[in-house]
Amino acid sequence: DLDGYHVYRALASGGPFTRQTDTPLDPTTFAQTGLTNGVTYWYRITAIDLTGNESAPTAPVSARPLPPPPAVPTGVSVTPAIQ
Predict the structure, then answer these.
(1) Which residue positions in the chain have pLDDT lower than 50?
(2) d(Cα 77, Cα 80) in Å, to the nearest integer?
(3) CA 9, CA 41: separation in Å to the nearest integer?
(4) Rounded CA gap, 57 and 63, in Å?
(5) Is 38 left (phi over 0), alpha (psi -120 to 50) or beta?
(6) CB 5 within 8 A of CB 47
(7) d(Cα 1, Cα 67) in Å, to the nearest integer?
(8) What pLDDT score does 69 carry?
(9) Is the preceding peptide bond at 60 cis, omega within 30 degrees of 0?
(10) What pLDDT score does 10 carry?
């Protein structure tokens, strides 16, 4: 009788954790926008049944968004060195 999952996020492994989902999620993936590059975020997941009972949370796991790599330079030419 699984209804879905709630996702919780914190800035430390010990919390406090804040729920990030308004309703139980059905999919197996979760994406967030608006996070700060280089900051470590901690997540826990709970399962919700059809009557609203919530499981104990999973152990916390961390994720840290990174900035995209720099753009490939344009307008650059390479000249081999003469030896």
Answers:
(1) none
(2) 10
(3) 7
(4) 17
(5) left
(6) yes
(7) 40
(8) 84
(9) no
(10) 98
Structure-block tokens of residue 22: 């308004």
In the chain, DSSP assigns E strands to: 2-10, 18-19, 41-49, 61-63
Residues 42, 16: Cα–Cα separation, whole Å: 10
Q: How far apart are CA 67 and CA 64, in angstroms?
A: 10
- Assess contact for 78 and 54: CB atoms under 8 A: no
Amino acid at 66: L
From residue 64, alpha-carbon distances to 4, 40, 60, 61, 75 in Å are 25, 4, 13, 10, 33
Contact 47, 54 (CB under 8 A): yes
The amino acid occupying position 25 is L
Q: Which pair of tokens denotes residue 60?
A: 């916390």
> Cα dihedral sign for 68, 63, 18, 3?
positive
